[in-house]
Design a protein that fits this description.
Layout lengths: L7 E6 L7 H17 L3 E4 L6 H10 L1 E4 L10 E4 L7 H8 L3 E4 L3 H15 L3 E5 L5 H7 L7 E4 L2 H6 L8 E5 L5 H14 L13 H14 L4 E5 L5 H12 L5 E4 L7 H4 L4 E6 L5 H14 L1 E6 L18
Parallel strand pairs: 1-11, 1-12, 2-3, 2-4, 4-5, 6-7, 6-8, 9-10, 9-11
Bound molecules: iron/sulfur cluster.
Length: 317
């Protein structure tokens, strides 16, 4: 089949998309640790939720584990970008492991906020997804019972807390901006004196990627999110697309995972990527479409991001 016989496809590429500053920093920490200390470098949990990234680092000598008892004494271990409960670095010290913390500074900011509320004698409601490593890490900054987790507006309407006058809330950084606004609204109506974050906990990268999807969603017949199934911010992008007027949105890890039957013959395709998905996977997906369609790509204008987070001093030279 010649190019001229292929069906025409307009592709709208959302901006910004893909890697955020926290993910770049976390990957750089593992990379630099491998340069400086040599392989193997252990990493507790997937450094960021993306198999392609993890496999690339494995090829360089990173070993991914879930718990520190899988890491030998004297080894170098990196904690993932999602953050860890307080007992994890303490446990690493006890095991005589040398650790590097790749927790995103914007997650650490929420940890600090939680500690401040606790010091001030406030009970904390955390809005987040149960079982997500970031939520486990944030709740693990404080003693058990100090934080109550809720996920929905219904839970916000019924949650039992010790004292409505002494209450604060924090959130996971990668939530849906709109869902969270509804949950916060419910909390504020029920608990008018609730202490709110000084600055939004949902991070700039999550906010910007959701806004970019909203911008193109109603113009697309289908919107693909390049990202992993365990990536919270990628899953939120799929939901945001559908709510913002795109009839279908799918999460794909990479080109090889595309189910072409499901793709059908869209006239306009939106493409974005979660904060842990590298641009090379977006380009791979575009190439796969170019094999089957006569593709016209438009890069949509969006907020430009210039956030950079420094890596730990010990790895800087
Ligand atoms: Fe940090 Fe946001 Fe990226 Fe998570 S998505 S690593 S909080 S910048």
């Amino acid at each position: 089949m010649t190019v001229h016989e292929q069906p025409r496809l307009n592709v709208l590429l959302a901006n910004p998309r893909g890697f955020c500053a926290g993910v770049e920093r976390a990957i750089q920490i593992v990379d630099r640790a491998l340069d400086k200390y040599g392989a193997p470098v252990y990493v507790r949990h997937e450094i960021v939720h993306n198999r392609f990234v993890v496999e690339g680092l494995e090829k360089r000598g990173a070993i991914f584990v879930e718990e520190l008892d899988e890491v030998p004494a004297d080894a170098v271990v990196v904690f993932s970008a999602h953050g860890v409960p307080k007992w994890v670095p303490q446990d690493a010290e006890r095991r005589k492991q040398f650790y590097l913390d790749a927790t995103c500074p914007l997650v650490s900011k929420v940890h600090v906020e939680a500690e401040r509320h606790h010091r001030d004698g406030l009970h904390i409601i955390m809005i987040g997804h149960e079982g997500h490593p970031e939520v486990i890490g944030t709740m693990g900054q404080l003693p058990e019972g100090a934080i109550t987790l809720i996920e929905t507006a219904d839970q916000a309407a019924t949650v039992d807390i010790p004292d409505p006058e002494r209450l604060a809330f924090i959130t996971q950084t990668t939530l849906s901006v709109d869902d969270t606004a509804e949950i916060v609204d419910t909390l504020r109506k029920r608990f008018p004196r609730i202490s709110v974050p000084r600055k939004e906990d949902i991070c700039y990268a999550t906010t910007n990627r959701q806004a970019a999807v909203k911008d193109i969603a109603s113009r697309c017949d289908l919107l693909l999110v390049v990202g992993a199934h365990n990536s919270s911010n990628s899953k939120r992008l799929v939901e945001v697309a559908e709510r913002a007027g795109c009839s279908r949105s799918l999460l794909v890890q990479r080109a090889a995972d595309i189910d072409w039957e499901k793709i059908g013959q869209p006239g306009t395709l939106g493409v974005t990527a979660g904060a842990s998905a590298p641009e090379v996977l977006v380009q791979e997906v575009l190439d796969a479409f170019q094999q089957r369609f006569d593709v016209q790509v438009t890069e949509v204008d969006g907020v430009s991001e210039d956030v950079i987070f420094k890596i730990p001093r010990v790895l800087r030279d």
